[in-house]
């Protein structure tokens, strides 16, 4: 990996980076409740206000930005680091939002599924058919935590379905293999990466066993938690890793697992951009920074 370059600082718990063809990065600021564009020179400008807690984001087939809004957090500062906490008193509920990056218009697309409210949508990925997968990590309260899973939906608001339930380790990062036939889901609290075969859009093949019937691809030892993820062109799953801040690289076979350290214990997300998609953009959330580094190979070109 190359040298880590700081692109922007002073962000309020950045997440959900998306590289745009003009070289800028659009990202979410969870604490601020905004969608923010960062130019290559590091200038940050708010383009939309979502409220709540905008988290993972992805461009859809219509050019709009689709955002997982987790509803917000309580916030704490520890030794100069900003850390999210429990469900806040002003929690707005979980939702999937559609954002027009030109006008700043924000629409609530989904707030429930089969009569059950979304709790804390977290990460999102589109497939080539134009639908999207998203995770719901849920919310924590003083003495309880939601049971949640993974959903599939259409971007026109016409269809949403709960596909995987429960993922009690906390469904967080989601991604697809380069050929779209495998779904990856990272669990936060267990530090595990699961996978499922995808025979058709919005469908998975489950195997007998506990939980949501996935195949365990990798787990990491010690105090490491998994956050959002991206897949590279070779099919490696690059998972943002908390506490042991960095990016955990898991090949399609599941081994060997490698770790690229980053200077923030709350390394929350990664996307690829630049010429040939060989630059990794990483959100360092506790210290409020967006950084970039030249990656070992190109990232996967996303569907839209």
Question: Your description of this structure?
Answer:
0% of the residues lie in helices and 47% in strands. The protein has 304 residues and is mainly beta. The chain has a domain at 13-220: 6 Propeller (Neuraminidase).
Précis, in short:
The chain is mainly beta and 304 residues long. Helices cover 0% and strands 47% of the residues.
Number of helices: 0
The global form is globular
Distance between the termini: 27 Å
* SSE order, one letter for each helix or strand: EEEEEEEEEEEEEEEEEEEEEEEEEEEE
Q: What share of residues are in beta strands?
A: over 45%
- Please provide the count of β strands: 28
* CATH domain topology of the domain at 13-220: Neuraminidase
Helix content: under 10%
Question: What's the CATH first level of the domain at 13-220?
Answer: Mainly Beta
**How much is the radius of gyration in Å?**
17 Å
What CATH architecture of the domain at 13-220 do you see? 6 Propeller
- Major β-sheet profile: 4 strands, antiparallel
The CATH superfamily of the domain at 13-220 is identified as TolB, C-terminal domain
Strand order of the largest sheet: 1-28-27-26
Low-confidence runs: none
What is the mean predicted local confidence, pLDDT?
97
- Class of secondary structure makeup: mainly beta
